[in-house]
């Protein structure tokens, strides 16, 4: 079954987001290009890149060479640092659009990215506002279809009301897996209609020896740890972004449809939550 057979609506947008994404963090040059092409072949239609990953151009090249229409693919990128001022920050955003956006209809239309995120809130209030205003402008001009944030907790999302009318953000991309469920942030986002993307859905393999995970895998013959973790995220209503540059794993991680994790086993996964202690990258601010 195609990996993109499910999608979610985005706030105030005619566009939907394919629920299974493909992460490309740490995949450089041809590794990224080839991984994206293999992902498209395996059925993924959603790639998650960032300025910080230094691979936006390879993503754009794979989009152009995929043989798919630009409109069939959903491309996300992110800005982590503003420029010196509003103008240079906007220019940084537009550079990403040109690199990652693909050529849109054989080059006849202007390039665009489907989702542009502010990568994290760490630069302070001024940086947050400047980056948001830059992606907001690119959205108004039709170079970006949806805008959102990443690693934002409720306080940072509420703060946005002070500097934008385009509220709430369409998406919040945060670390999520059974050991780090960020429940307060997830509940808050869901209450505001913000789609939740789950990064590190495989915990970067660091829980491969977990006895509960291994006991659960045994209950689903033919399924792997990675497939169970991705399926858990899908059944929670999140948008998981598993990353792999290994061809066999690209297919394995997309083979997550046509079966379900039982309600009882979802509860067993839920009970693994370790809160802040279970986080390997960023636990969002809660108050
Ligand atoms: N917004 C943010 O701040 C943020 C932060 C982190 C990540 N992200 C996004 O989320 C994506 C995913 O996160 P992540 O890359 O940090 O971690 P992840 O997807 O949880 O784990 C990736 C690791 O798992 C391995 N792997 C993948 N599939 C596997 C399988 N079927 N069996 C065994 N091992 C497997 C990969 O190895 P190989 O590649 O060697 O196969 C890689 O080392 C990133 O690529 C990025 O797009 C966003």
Describe this structure in words.
This protein is an alpha/beta fold. The chain has a single domain (7-277), classed as NADP-dependent oxidoreductase domain (TIM Barrel), CATH 3.20.20.100. 37% of the residues lie in helices and 15% in strands. The protein has helices spanning 29-42, 56-65, 86-100, 125-140, 154-159, 183-191, 211-218, 225-235, 247-254, 263-270; strands spanning 7-9, 16-18, 22-23, 46-48, 74-79, 113-118, 144-150, 171-175, 195-199, 239-240. It has an eight-stranded parallel β-sheet with strand order 3-4-5-6-7-8-9-10. A hairpin with a 6-residue loop joins strand 1 and strand 2 (16-18). Helix 1 packs across helix 2, helix 2 runs parallel beside helix 3 (86-100) and helix 3 (86-100) crosses helix 4. The chain is globular, with a radius of gyration of 18 Å. It starts with 6 loop residues before the first strand and ends in a 17-residue tail after the last helix. The site of NADP nicotinamide-adenine-dinucleotide phosphate has 28 residues, from helix 9. InterPro entries: AKR, Aldo/ket_reductase_CS, NAD(P)_OxRdtase_dom_sf, NADP_OxRdtase_dom. GO terms for molecular function: oxidoreductase activity. Substrate binds at residue 119. The record marks 78 as: Lowers pKa of active site Tyr.
